[in-house]
Write a structure and sequence with these properties.
The chain is built from 3 helices and 7 strands, in the order E-E-E-E-H-E-E-E-H-H. By secondary structure, the chain is an alpha+beta fold. Strand 5 and strand 6 form a beta hairpin. The longest helix has 14 residues.
């Protein structure tokens, strides 16, 4: 299988605490062609070394730029339906929720870079089914 590059992107986001208050954070996005359907997102509060990691479907994030997308733990939707200014990402782990506001143009640019590596719709050709089978058979 051809070795493809990993796409890594960092951007500033806001943790929306209330209508009047938000907290600056960094969101690091990582796309591995060996797991072509997923993105890894690591969230870090400014000045902290601790990160909170999430796995987000690439299609979910892309669909959320255009309209409401997702059910359950992760939901994404445009902040304003008339321009591509910001996007909201709602993370709902069992312990509570976090509403993040992120720049949609930067997320779109990241997604375009991932699609240059593995186009949407071509993920299955890049999926390592043998490695996945070995992982499951090993009890992992």
């Amino acid at each position: 299988m051809k070795s493809l590059k990993t796409v890594i992107w960092g951007l500033s986001v806001e943790l929306v605490v209330s209508q009047e208050m938000s907290l600056s954070m960094t969101m690091s996005l990582r796309y591995e062609p060996s797991d072509p359907y997923a993105l890894r997102a690591a969230f870090t509060v400014a000045g902290s070394d601790e990160t909170v990691d999430w796995i987000i479907g690439r299609d979910l994030l892309a669909d959320g730029l255009k309209g409401p997308a997702g059910e359950g733990d992760i939901r994404v939707w445009p902040a304003d339906e008339h321009d591509l200014g910001d996007v909201y990402i709602l993370l709902s782990p069992p312990a509570g929720t976090a509403l993040l506001k992120a720049p949609a143009r930067e997320i779109k640019a990241f997604l375009q870079e991932t699609e240059a590596v593995v186009p949407r719709g071509a993920e299955l050709r890049h999926f390592d089914l043998d490695a996945l089978l070995v992982h499951f058979l090993a009890g992992g």
